[in-house]
Design goal:
Two copies of one chain form a homodimer.
Chain A (H helix, E strand, L loop, with lengths): L1 H21 L3 H6 L11 H21 L5 H23 L3 H25 L1 H6 L1 H20 L8
Helix pairs in contact in A: 1-3, 1-4, 4-5, 5-7
Chain lengths: ~160, ~160
Amino acid sequence: MTWVYFAIFFCACASAGATGAMFQPGEWYRSLNKPSWTPPDWLFPVAWTTLYICMSAAGARVAGLDGSGLALSLWALQIALNTLWTPVFFGKQNMRGGMVVLSALWIAVAACMVALWQLDWLAGLLFLPYLAWVTTAGALNWSVLQLNPAQPGQA
Amino acid sequence: MTWVYFAIFFCACASAGATGAMFQPGEWYRSLNKPSWTPPDWLFPVAWTTLYICMSAAGARVAGLDGSGLALSLWALQIALNTLWTPVFFGKQNMRGGMVVLSALWIAVAACMVALWQLDWLAGLLFLPYLAWVTTAGALNWSVLQLNPAQPGQA
């Protein structure tokens, strides 16, 4: 049954990942001023694939446990926000909107991690790289917002 | 605690709903040939708001129950697919891609409804209007795909 859970969560992650395939960075993103510590483009799909596996494993570890409702409802919230970010940032080229979504995502991921940890420490630990990555993505989004004051995405 | 669950699920629904505010139908959609039974534009936000309340209530009713893991993992899957559809269809104007997402969404919603029903018949019932609406949306997406063979969104 754990594998069924893993498959369901991974399909949800794939939906979020599909936005990355559809809304690619492209010319607009390349033309933006970016901080020196911006991760290279190739790292993003590698990182996300790894994180999707960790997130799905975390969900699968707790889905069969009694009292997992809070962790799983927060898991649902984070995957919806995760699916939303790419169309906002790369699709609409809206850096401010992206920052709002990322801030909400950070809170959802942190809350989910705490709820997971209370059920199963390994499930909580599997969310730690995700929180670290979302923190990095938030810092990058914020930095890009500051470094490109004349961009229409400031609107 | 049920209200906390409702709030979390409703925030997830709001993420999905935000795509509808960002990627509006616009000129492209208006210019498409549509079937005679196409619902009027004003009905879409009304229907979705009602459905989001029903979906959140359904999730909140079961989240505190033991054995709700399957229903909640499917709830997470359906909200990710729901968030994905609008950017694909209206954002990328990809009618074929939209059809793929809607088909996956229909399966996820139907499976979630069955899983909810086994825990609480009222939660299952709260998903029935959603399944009906996704069925209608699927028929509309399919019909628009057939009626506009020369559109780039066929790609």
